Amino acid sequence: MALSISFVLLLGIVVVVLIRSKSVKPGPAIVCVLFGFFLSSTSMAPSINRFMTGIADMIGQIRF
């Protein structure tokens, strides 16, 4: 749970930075946010969640 909250926060910060740097205009950013919101209520959501958790676990196992 803590992973998903921090990932959402990170993505939110990226969206704000992209809008402020004029890389992405507010209209397309809103469309992307709405797409993600509606995608999360589809049957693909558990698969996407497992994929992202797997990537996060893999990154977490890297030792420097």
Structural features:
64 residues; mainly alpha; single chain
Instruction: Give the assembly state of these chains.
Output: single chain
Helix-strand category: mainly alpha
Beginning-to-end CA distance, first to last residue: 25 Å
Percent helix among the residues?
A: over 70%
Nearest-angstrom radius of gyration?
Answer: 14 Å
Question: Averaged pLDDT, please?
Answer: 82
Reported for the largest beta sheet, the result is: none
Number of strands: 0
Protein name: DUF2304 domain-containing protein
Keywords: Membrane, Transmembrane, Transmembrane helix
Transmembrane segments: 28-48
Task: Summarize the structure in words.
- The protein is mainly α and 64 residues long.
- It is 77% helix and 0% strand.
- It is built from three helices and no strands.
- The longest helix is centred in the N-terminal third of the chain and has 19 residues, at 2-20.
- The mean pLDDT is 82.
List the helices and strands and how they pair.
Layout: H1 2-20, H2 26-39, H3 45-60
Quick overview of this protein structure:
The protein has 64 residues and is mainly alpha-helical. It has helices spanning 2-20, 26-39, 45-60. It comes from Streptomyces cinereospinus.
